[in-house]
Specification:
three-stranded antiparallel beta sheet; alpha+beta; Pseudouridine synthase; about 325 residues
């Protein structure tokens, strides 16, 4: 069992509070301080929590850690932040924040290996390797598509049930724009699976799983199916009707990340909670749907007028 989970259960703490207590050195296992939240402990391990103990390390950073151990670090990437620098050599990136966090936490220059990326305006879980062996292991798992990844997205229009989109992609995203490959053009195989979680006002909340992991795959596939990601200004068709509301960014969030741990081989699965801006958009669309249903309910003047129009149109 993970140490932070054991602490949360034993002392009635939230998972976040348990993680912070462990990192601060306020938890002992068998009488010794353990400060890695992801460390494995036996269910019968002797744990003690010392909330008044001075913190072992103070790490001030704009970083939300979902899982940490000697091999991997999984963090929440906020929307609007680059995962890694581009040719412009940006100073504030998720990579720089991770490096600073590890440097302050362990008082030495850290090794940080980039395993995968998320778009600037996509939020969610991202894993970094803390040594070269873990980096090679994880990169190979990504190459073989042996990583469990689930996104949530708000898409325009009403989707129903579940399905998959199997369409190869062409373009490299730099010199040529990425798009669905034309017949006979070839392209790289890309498969996206989706299932509807909730119907909203003129939109749908969907869970999306990747069978392959091409750049911008989700956004391109959903836009080609007539349901662009709400707020996506790049792949949304120019002739599409007006969106149900103006989103602050593309409503795409990497919620779930799972893989075999590079050292133990055990399944490690981490979930990133929905960020506030995403939750606000979903809430607004829920209220909009509820208002529309109330307006069109039987016996309402608006409903009778709408029904009359449909009969005339028929």
């Amino acid at each position: 069992m993970r140490l932070d989970l054991a602490v949360a259960r034993r002392f009635g703490l939230s998972r976040r509070a348990a993680r912070e207590a462990v990192r601060a050195g306020r938890v002992d296992v068998g009488g010794e301080i353990r400060d890695e939240p992801g460390a494995e402990v036996a269910e019968e391990a002797v744990l003690s929590h010392h909330p008044d103990r001075p913190p072992r390390r103070r790490v001030r950073t704009r970083l939300s850690v979902l899982h940490e151990d000697a091999d991997v670090l999984i963090v929440e990437k906020p929307a609007g932040l680059l995962a890694v620098p581009t040719s412009e050599r940006e100073k504030d990136t998720l990579l720089s924040r991770v490096s600073l966090y590890l440097q302050h936490r362990y008082r030495r220059r850290p090794y940080v290996g980039v395993v995968h990326r998320l778009d600037r305006d996509t939020s969610g879980a991202l894993v970094f390797a803390r040594n070269r062996e873990a980096l090679r292991f994880l990169q190979e798992r990504f190459r073989r598509h042996e990583i469990e990844r689930e996104y949530v997205a708000v898409v325009e229009g009403r989707l129903a049930g579940a399905g998959s989109i199997d369409a190869p992609l062409s373009g490299d995203g730099t010199s040529t724009r990425r798009r669905i490959a034309r017949p006979g053009e070839g392209g790289k195989r890309a498969v996206t699976r989706y299932r509807v979680l909730e119907s909203l006002r003129a939109a749908s909340l969907v869970a999306v799983a990747l069978e392959t992991g091409r750049t911008h795959q989700i956004r391109i596939h959903l836009a080609s199916a007539g349901h662009p990601v709400l707020g996506d200004l790049v792949y949304r068709p120019r002739d599409a009707p007006a969106p149900p509301l103006d989103a602050p960014r593309q409503m795409l969030h990497a919620r779930l990340l799972g893989f075999a741990h590079p050292r133990t081989g055990r399944l490690l699965r981490v979930e990133a909670p929905l960020p506030d801006d995403f939750a606000r958009v979903v809430g607004a669309l829920r209220r909009g749907r509820a208002g529309a249903e109330k307006q069109n309910a039987p016996g309402k003047p608006g409903a009778r007028k709408s029904d009359a129009k449909r009969r005339v149109g028929g």
